[in-house]
């Protein structure tokens, strides 16, 4: 009896030393909603392969144990090395994503999906929603935030790099080429138009950096080349048609085969265009897929919780083998089922052992607090939901980037906005500072 007690106390001490704040319910973490216990994991969209460490990269956000999504979205690495002997892959938090603004206003910013990984440059491309548009960006490891690269205005956007990460093809309204991989908006302004007017929902730049494989909304797959300049669509060579495929969630080239996925499964055809019917790998509904060249890893479509899915699992299926000219497919296996890590998490921006400290201003959305720092230069909070969050001044506004800014003509001074050298004119209850 004594021994058990001593062991219990010892394990408690070890847990304290290790900082093990393992929990099962929100109340164990202190004061909800400033702190919560991680419950179910909602996987984000997108899965990519990191050839540097042989691991997969996925994203997700935990629920609180008693409620919905809580805290930061995370980038996870998924180690599949134990899956070949029947164990599930292990999920480890790689980093968190700062900068989500979950208010109901116009500055709404939310992480959407992991898009692509460039292992040589160590660039992780992501997409997020901001003020009603989809933005293609790069995850900046220094600030754990997403740097905007391109605003995607409604037209379907697809992109791929060559293996050496020196060339890019992308589809917008047309197929374009860039002589590098993009890190900022200006890289897209300096692109070369290869094919006019062509809309794509999947694009691959082949290993030779010359062949371009595209997929279209009418289920046609074409071959193009980076040598074309402002070519018309009839210069694309039709490789394969699957008229059942009006959307695709993944598009891969492995060996001699092109793989495409959607809600009806993963199918494949020969890249030389000699297939008459598709090879079916699985009928699972696929929300995204990637490959390490030996297996295809995919996320099965779950139900949706905002930008995240639940009930989604990660599966693996070997690339089909060709034996005596016959293609043999195998069955997929589940390699990861999302689970809780039983850790306490502070609401975004809060600190302290009970997450009670906010070095800044507390903003509220749907009963969940957000702690935003005060900008030392302006005296305004770095993030705002309403103009009242900024200051008592009636000449300040919380703009569509959820940042505080003086109304046009007004200048910032002492935590206020003033109309120096001018006069304030009110029009429809809206003040303007008109210079004298
Ligand atoms: C923390 O506690 C959990 C559950 O009690 C246990 O599974 C885990 O191994 C512990 N971790 C450490 C670092 O002690
Ligand atoms: C997270 O919470 C939401 C809302 O309560 C729920 O719909 C969803 O199923 C939960 N997800 C997981 C993975 O438990
Ligand atoms: C499975 O393989 C992993 C790594 O290859 C190893 O760490 C683990 O012990 C193995 N598990 C079993 C049950 O053999
Ligand atoms: C634009 O691209 C061309 C080659 O495609 C390159 O020579 C030129 O330096 C680029 N210009 C800028 C401003 O990046
Ligand atoms: C491409 O060709 C069309 C005519 O077919 C022309 O109107 C357009 O300006 C050209 N675009 C570029 C970028 O060269
Ligand atoms: C398209 O779907 C129909 C009905 O489900 C099926 O008979 C046909 O084989 C499919 N075509 C292809 C190319 O998969
Ligand atoms: C896909 O579904 C069809 C029709 O239900 C079935 O005949 C086929 O075996 C399935 N293929 C795979 C790979 O599960
Ligand atoms: C390949 O397929 C043919 C026709 O379906 C069959 O007769 C042959 O036995 C297969 N060969 C192997 C090695 O499976
Ligand atoms: C919001 O931020 C973007 C990118 O930083 C900038 O281009 C835009 O002008 C900003 N909008 C406002 C209203 O400040
Ligand atoms: C106001 O006028 C002064 C003196 O002419 C000038 O230095 C200052 O920049 C002006 N301020 C604004 C906001 O125009």
From TrEMBL:
- Taxonomically, which superkingdom? Eukaryota
The residues forming the signal peptide are 1-19
Asked whether the keyword ATP-binding is assigned, the reply is no
InterPro entries in alphabetical order? Quino_amine_DH_bsu (IPR011044), SrfA-induced_signal (IPR053369)
Its protein name is EGF-like domain-containing protein
List the keywords (alphabetical): Signal
* Protein's UniProt keywords contain Glycosyltransferase: no
Q: Where does the sequence pass through the membrane?
A: none
């Amino acid at each position: 009896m004594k021994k058990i007690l001593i062991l219990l106390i010892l394990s408690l001490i070890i847990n304290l030393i290790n900082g093990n704040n393992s929990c099962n319910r929100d109340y164990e973490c202190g004061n909800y909603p400033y702190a919560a216990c991680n419950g179910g994991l909602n996987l984000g969209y997108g899965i990519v392969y990191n050839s540097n460490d042989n691991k997969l990269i996925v994203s997700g956000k935990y629920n609180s144990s008693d409620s919905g999504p809580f805290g930061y979205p995370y980038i996870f690495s998924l180690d599949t090395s134990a899956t070949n002997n029947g164990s599930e892959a292990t999920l480890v938090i790689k980093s968190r994503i700062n900068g989500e603004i979950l208010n109901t206003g116009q500055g709404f910013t939310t992480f959407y999906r992991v898009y692509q990984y460039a292992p040589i440059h160590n660039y992780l491309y992501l997409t997020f929603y901001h003020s009603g548009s989809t933005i293609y960006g790069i995850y900046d490891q220094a600030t754990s935030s997403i740097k905007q690269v391109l605003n995607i205005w409604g037209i379907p956007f697809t992109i791929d790099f060559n293996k050496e990460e020196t060339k890019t093809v992308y589809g917008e309204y047309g197929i374009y080429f860039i002589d590098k991989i993009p890190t900022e908006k200006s890289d897209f302004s300096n692109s070369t138009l290869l094919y006019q007017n062509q809309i794509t929902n999947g694009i691959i730049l082949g290993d030779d950096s010359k062949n371009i494989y595209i997929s279209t909304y009418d289920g046609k797959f074409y071959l193009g080349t980076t040598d074309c300049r402002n070519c018309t669509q009839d210069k694309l060579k039709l490789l394969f048609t699957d008229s059942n495929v009006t959307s695709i969630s993944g598009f891969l080239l492995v060996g001699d085969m092109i793989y495409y996925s959607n809600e009806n499964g993963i199918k494949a055809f020969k890249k030389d265009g000699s297939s008459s019917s598709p090879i079916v790998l699985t009928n699972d509904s696929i929300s995204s897929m990637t490959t390490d060249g030996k297996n295809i890893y995919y996320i099965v479509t779950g139900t949706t919780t905002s930008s995240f899915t639940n009930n989604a699992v990660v599966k693996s299926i070997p690339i089909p083998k060709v034996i005596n000219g016959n293609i043999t497919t195998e069955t997929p296996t589940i390699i990861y089922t999302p689970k809780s890590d039983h850790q306490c998490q502070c609401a975004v921006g809060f600190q302290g052992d009970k997450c009670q400290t906010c070095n800044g201003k507390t903003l509220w959305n749907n009963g969940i607090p957000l702690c935003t720092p005060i900008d030392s230069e302006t005296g305004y909070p770095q993030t705002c939901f309403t103009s009242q969050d900024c200051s008592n001044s009636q000449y300040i506004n919380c703009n569509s980037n959820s940042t505080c800014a003086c109304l046009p003509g007004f200048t910032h001074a002492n935590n206020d906005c003033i109309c120096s050298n001018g006069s304030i004119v009110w029009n429809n209850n809206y003040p303007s500072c008109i210079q004298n």
